[in-house]
Amino acid sequence: LICSGLAPYMSKDDxxxxxxxxxxxxxxxxxxxxxxxxxLLAASDAAHENVELLCAxxxxxxxxxxxxxxxENIEPHxxxxxxxxxxxxxxxxxxxxxxxKGANWNGLPMLTSAGQCTCASLTDANVG
Length: 128
Known about the structure:
There is one protein chain. This protein has helices at residues 12-15, 79-84, 87-92, and strands spanning 22-23, 29-31, 34-36, 39-40, 42-44, 51-53, 67-68, 95-97, 103-105, 108-112, 115-116, 126-127. The protein is 12% helix and 26% strand. It contains three helices and twelve strands; from the N terminus they run H-E-E-E-E-E-E-E-H-H-E-E-E-E-E. The protein is α+β, with helices and mostly antiparallel strands. A hairpin with a 5-residue loop joins strand 8 and strand 9.
């Protein structure tokens, strides 16, 4: 189960059936009285008025792990290490979309087996 704070920006129909991008090795967190076991990634403009899901391209395999610009896909860090070392916070600050709506970390494309993850229309946006 994953809970998110995206309800003010989109309906459940905007999410259902999409190949969303999820951070799954975060420590579970209580949200709205339920335990959330991950985070949906979304792009947002600087004012945080426009928010769009980050999606894998058609043909991506649900559940596959994403890589950065061809980097080796190593075993993920466990939830305790991610929390203790603040790994997510360090990675998230450098996640952005580019001029073509593609998601990048430090300028490296966020890739699935079917290509780069994107949002619908936001360019040069923050991802989190």
